[in-house]
Amino acid sequence: PNVDHGNGKRTRKPPAWHKDYDFAEENHGAYFSCADYVEQSPITKEEAMARTDSEKWKAAIQEELDSHKKYNTWNVVPRPEKRKVIDSKWVFKVKTNMDGTAERYKARLVAKGFQSSDYKETYSPVAKLTTFRVLMSIANHYDYEIVQMDVKTAFLNGTLEEEIYMNLPEDMYDSNLVCKLGKSIYGLKQSPKNWNTRFNVFMEKEGFQNSKHDTCLYIRNSENSVLYVLLYVDDIIILGNNKTSLGQFQNKLKSEFEMTVLDNINYLGLIVERNRESCEMKIHQTKYLQEVMNKFNMSNCKGISTPIDKGLNLDRAQSEEGITT
């Protein structure tokens, strides 16, 4: 009998876990950062539980659930009729120290906000990299104090105005029950804006004003002190000329939000090394670059200069005439 072998081409389908991510448009890959890829964090809960460090992931999951309970993120209610109910997903990440060792295991329960259309405004500003560099220059020149703080589960501080329902997390699913969200859980499109609005209200109450050049830079001048506060989502960098005033503001932040004080300045992967005695500051990405090299087995590779040949000298006449090959 005649057998139709087709044209020899296989129909390629995306991996099953792609369903958990939003896509820019059809046939585009999901949004990933290279840093996440390098760290080799588990993608699914099943993968996390199958690893040798599963106990640490279990502890991270419980910590996340405790945070939702503390903030009253949702109420469990009967499944509503004729209402869209979105799904949720666990996201895992290993936060590393400067030497590459694991510092913290983080698990985050996120809503699949791309399944929902219940939102109005979603825009939320982020600090400019130029602003960060200028602030570091000011701090180094005038010998200002610098402190970096992290807001734990920052988005849960934002109040949700829309009525949104979400299925219960994995291992808790019930076809008759859902979560009615009351806080801006991670994954919702409006969550960054709601958190930014919440932080703005607090900063205005504390007497800060937004910079005209960067709305994520807050400035407060008083008779004896000046404070600069830079916000990038949940990372906060504070610098000022008065250690007492800076400490008092730190305490205000801690009383308003659950905060963590970081030992080193690490801003979006940029590591700041400072020597106050010699008035020197260095900003680099050595840790991230080393992670990339290790991931692709290039940590012991030899650097070469290409495409110019070693020893090639160019004079002005050659540059004006051009070089032919």
UniProtKB/TrEMBL annotation:
Residues 71-309 form the Reverse transcriptase Ty1/copia-type domain. InterPro entries: DNA/RNA_pol_sf, RVT_2. Pfam families: RVT_2 (PF07727). One of its GO terms (biological process) is DNA biosynthetic process. This is Copia protein. It comes from Cacopsylla melanoneura.
